[in-house]
Structures are given as structure tokens and as C-alpha cells.
Structures
1.
Amino acid sequence: MRVDIISIFPEYFAPLDVSLIGKARHKGLLDIRLHQLRDWTHDVHRTVDDTPYGGGPGMVMKPEPWSEAIDAVAGSGGPPPRLIVPTPSGRPFTQEVALEYAKEPWLLFAPARYEGIDARVMAEYESRLRVDEVSIGDYVLAGGEAAVLVIVEAVARLLPGVLGNAGSVTDDSFAPGAMAGLLEGPVYTKPPVWRGHQVPPILLSGNHGAIARWRRDEALRRTLAKRPELVARLGPEGLDKRDREVLGEASFRFGPEDMAN
């Protein structure tokens, strides 16, 4: 996969040289290219922002440098990339979206600063590229670079060969499969007893069926405790008899209209 990032702070992306992402780049699984937005300015101050029309606080990123940068990068060969713009007003970034992006051969990120990018830039490129405005959460950052780091890591680890154990992806919280829609339960490693805390005996039993059931029970309990709306979203049709027992122990009930189905 090719990933291009246009930013006024390309040095912000040094973490992409370490850990799994750094190894993926070294192995050629991930081609990340950084671009300085100011390279597409034409004044002595290399200006990328100006005051907003209509007044108000803050500055707005100018359309000219962004358009020239996107044109240059997106036109550098092959089918056009998918343009991703992090913004609090975008659609929520989820594991489902990460899986969608992992199927793309080329992603182009445009992280904004200040009050954002002149809206005409998105209007211009929506007719020429697939443009996604994406939010990583209901909060505001100083700039979109941190959001790009989050998205790139979430997507890159889904690429074949990036993780040492491909099964890690299928066991993730929010991943499709047996645990779809649930948070991952607690995990343990050696020693079996640490500071008086013992690993649950079932995990030492070697009974893989019972272990799988225990893990689902714990995933249900953790999800109910921390993200009850996710359990409600599953609906009773997505639960088996034991699931209902676990939820019943916690006094969780679906609505009467659900239980009638």
C-alpha cells in the first residue's frame, strides 16, 4: 500500500519509522511518502493560511497550496488515490472503516491546522477523487496529524504480513467474527500467579472449547460494563443461550419488543 501525507509538519510522522509500521516500511509492505505543504507556496513567507471571510477567530488554510499539492501528489502516477481529510465533523473512524481502507492501494492524507481547510478544496476534489472526511472522536486536536497517525496504524496493521501473527487481527475488539461487536476480554501470560493474583484456571486447562466460551463470556461482561450501548446494538438475535445467561446475571435486558422476536 502507498500512503502519502501532505502536512506543514512532516516531522510529526517520525513514529511511522518505528515498531510494526517501521518494519512494514522496511519490508516494502508500506510505502509512506511525506510532503511539506509549504513547498507549494509562492511567497517569501511560505504562507498557507489567511483570515476567514465573515470574521471570527483563528485562521483558515488557503486553497491554492492545497490544490497544487494534491494535484502534484495525486497525479504522480497510477489510478488516483483515496483522499482522507481528518476533521471533527467527519464520519466516525471505526474498525469497519479501517478494514475498508486496508483494501485500497493508495491513500492520500490531508491533515489540516488552524480552523481547517477552505471548504472549496473539498468541493473541488469530490468530483475528481473519492474524498473522505473522517473523525477519530468527538474532540478537537491542534491539528490533523495525530489523527493521521491513528488511522495509518489502524489500517497498516491489517495489511497482510504486517503482524507477526495474522490471528491477532481476528481477535481484536470490534473485529468481525465470533466476537463481532464486543470488546476484547482480559488477557494473561506467565507466571500463573503474580503478587497473589492467579490466572483463571480455565486458561490452564487445555480445553479449547471451554476457553473460547470463557473468553466470550468475559468479552460480554467487559463490553456491558464499559460500552453497554454495544451490547444493545447486537440485538437478541445475535446472542445464544449462554450469552443471555451472562447478560441476565448482570441484570441486562433487551426491550420487550426485542425479546418477542
2.
Amino acid sequence: MESKEKHANHTRLALADPPDCCSKPRNQLTGEVILVHRGNCSFTVKANVAEEAGASAILIINNQTELFKMVCESDADVNIKIPAVMLPQDAGSNLENYINNNTRG
């Protein structure tokens, strides 16, 4: 039996700049998954900004240790075509540390 991992897509992970992804990122995105911090604006704003900037998906790092259900505002423009996922705070911090430690020249 063949492993499904062989057919998995490999996509680079980029840190949002600004970290909250509430405004257009300063870094150019070309299909990366963008890692952002929760807060300062709604989930739909973050996802729309990330999608418009060229991200293929958005991972939102929760700012609390508890689980949190992502919801859209009732009047939100929910025409988002990229996946949006919230990560637990510790998992997001670990990913962020990994990126920071492995991208410095």
C-alpha cells in the first residue's frame, strides 16, 4: 500500500508582516501558507487580506491556551476561497520559533 504522504503538496510557510494580518502584508506572497496572530481585526478581514496578498491558506495562532471557535460576523463578506485554520497558542508559537530559527542567514 502506497503512502498518502508521497502525494502531499509541499507549501512554504511564511510569517505575516504585520503579524496580525489586518493590513496588506509587507512581504510578497506567492502561494505560501501565512502564519498570523489572532486579534486586532476579525477572522474574515485576516483571511481576505491573506487571500488578496497571494496566500494559499491562513493559519491563525490563538492568543489564549483555551480552544476557540472561529466565527464570522453576521454581516461579513464571506467570499473566502482559501482554507483558514486556528492553531492552539503553543503549536503556533512552536511553528513561529521554527521558522525564525531556520530562516536566518
3.
Amino acid sequence: MTHGRGAQVEAAAHRHLIAAGLRPVATNASFRGGELDLVMLDGDTLVFVEVRYRASARFGGGAASIDAGKRRRLVHAAQAFLAGHRQFRDAACRFDVVEATGDPDAPVLHWLRDAFRADDA
């Protein structure tokens, strides 16, 4: 995904999740070996959100593209985030995926809560 298209789709996912009641914590948090697209709070749960864009869902959704290696990188990035943000050290955490398809200016979004577990990585 190109940077411009990626930013558009991530912004749409961000707005969608805020409209659903989540509160933003961080966007595009980069760490050695990984990046977290969105970090949000759902109540007291810290949510690490991976946004995946596909122009078409014809060959599977974006969640299908998150293989074991990508899950490991996301878990390591989440651990680095938690190490640097001690205020969340006791928070419950989960990994969500927002799949986006179609026009990047107005993507169709599908939010998968608890898409995978840290111990799945």
C-alpha cells in the first residue's frame, strides 16, 4: 500500500473506531522491528489495531495477510509500546484488525475485534 493511500485508509479506520466509542492513544507508533498502526482504548482495554487494505476482497480479506511473522512483529511492537508507556502496564490488551476494501477515499471497513492473541504469535 502506498503511503498516501495507507494514510487515507488508516484515517478512515481511526474515525470509524472513534465513532464506535474507542479513544485514541497513538497512531503509527514505530519500534525496532515493527509498527502499530493504531493504539486505542476500548473501555479499560488497550487495543492494538492493524489496518489492512485490499483494493478488492476477491483474494481474501486483509486479516488473511497477517501471517505468523507479522503477528510476532505486532506482539513485539506492543510489548515495546507497553514498556515505554508504564501507565498501561496493568491494562488488558487485545489485537484487532480493520480490513478495508474498495476506494481508499471511502473504504468499506470491517472491524475484527480480538483478531488474534499474543500467544498465537
